[in-house]
Amino acid sequence: MYSYYLMLGWRSLRRNPILTGLMVLTLAVGIAASVSTLTILHVLSSNPIPHKSSNLLVPVMDNGPLDDYVPGEPNSPRKSSQMTYRDANNLLALGFGSNRTALYSVRMLVESPKRELGLIGVRGIATTSAYFPMFEVPFRYGSAWSAEDDKNAAKVVVLSQNTSEKFFGNDNPVGKQLRFQQQDFTIIGVLAPWSPLPHYTNLLSGKSAVVGEEEIYIPFNTAITNKFENNGNLSCSGPTGPGFQGVLDSECIWIQFWFETNSATQNSQLKDQLDAYTKDQKKLGRFPRQAPNGLFNVMQWMEYLKVVPNDSKLSTWLSFGFLALCLVNTVGLLLAKFSARAAEIGVRRALGASQADIFKQFLIETVVLGLVGGVLGLALSFLGLWGISHQTADLAVIAHMDLTMLAITFVLSVAASVLAGLLPTWRACRVTPAIQLKSQ
């Protein structure tokens, strides 16, 4: 029976191509506008590491001065979400959580093995060996450095695949040397393509959350020992001593820190350990604000930093408002179409079709309309995303449709057409057969 209704629906749509075309186009345009903006929001708000995001945690400890401090008033996220070198070094040594890592952004000049390239600026991060297993960073060649390399400030480096290919082509460069800042570093690993969206591991370096990967990775202690300057955010709440050592000894916050835990219970224990640490530091005259510590998992962290801007959310709501307007127009067109078929409905009712049968037939016809509108809407969505991707480098990365959004397009199209068809279908099944037969 349902296959028969599908056939009737398809024939009905073909019977009046102009009206059908208007309904399909109206529905498709609304779907395309909604899906295009929803795709951007979907990528920006997606979980980059879903199976362990609840166990990767960022600590927030407010070491600011009492000047102009209002208890309970939130600080600027980018100011309060990093920490001092002193705190990072202490937390690495204390061993809280199952694992931990500190990192900061660096930018250095590299003497390219290809002489024609000369000196090339590269950017990356100084971090600990724990960074790679914590964030499940894949390797193409070699491996990360060891904890012993961390301790000894070894001059080793891991390259991204793009950086490796820039300097060495498709050859395996592990064991070769690169000269950074007039010092020789041994290449011990090359990453496989790895660019999580958003770039959650290092959101405080002033970079985009979606564009640009790290080009090099060097040990944290190596960068500190060799006084490699921070290339990210730096916020100081008081005077600092001269030079790089002055920054290390100061209350300047510039280092990103991550913990890894194994369970929700350990998350709670970690919070208690952080509170105990800041309490001890207060005895030394630090953390005068007495502000509570924060501990954010990956998704909470991205929400805290407003990775998804408010204008993206607003654009999505506006696009769905436009879809609602398109549905109102579709309702009007369906009412006109179904009203013109009152005589047909009267004959069917006279031949024994129930109101439920009429309702099913016309509702299935709207489903057919939704499927056709979904196909056209999908094509318009791809066209819209292509146009969006040419606006900025950020949008070029995120303006693409995955399988989830592909499925959502058709579900949204069918749901929208069914919703638009409820009133016209209900009106159609209420037609009185006797009146229609008398008028014939």
Structure report:
- The chain has 440 residues and is an alpha+beta fold.
- It has two domains: 2-45 and 309-439, no CATH class; 53-304, no CATH class.
- Helix content is 52%, strand content 14%.
- It contains 17 helices and ten strands.
- A six-stranded mixed beta barrel has the order 2-3-8-5-7-6.
- A hairpin with a 2-residue loop joins β6 (177-180) and β7 (183-191).
- The longest helix has 35 residues, at 355-389.
- The protein is elongated and about 95 Å long.
- The two termini are 28 Å apart.
- The model has no long low-confidence stretch (mean pLDDT 81).
Q: Which stretches are poorly predicted, pLDDT < 50 over at least 5 residues?
A: none
Spell the H/E element sequence.
HHEHHEEHEHEHEEEHHEHEHHHHHHH
Biggest β-sheet strands, sense, barrel: 6 strands, mixed, barrel
H/I helix tally: 17
Number of domains: 2
| Total beta strands | 10
Estimated helix fraction? 40-55%
Task: Trace the largest sheet across and list its strands.
Answer: 2-3-8-5-7-6
Oligomer: single chain
Kindly name the structural category: alpha+beta
Q: What integer is the average pLDDT?
A: 81
- Percentage of β-strand residues: 5-15%
Gap between N and C termini:
28 Å
Global Rg = 30 Å
Q: What best-fitting shape do the alpha-carbon axes yield?
A: elongated
Keywords: Cell membrane, Membrane, Transmembrane, Transmembrane helix
Subcellular location: Cell membrane
Membrane topology: Multi-pass membrane protein
Domain ABC3 transporter permease C-terminal: 319-433
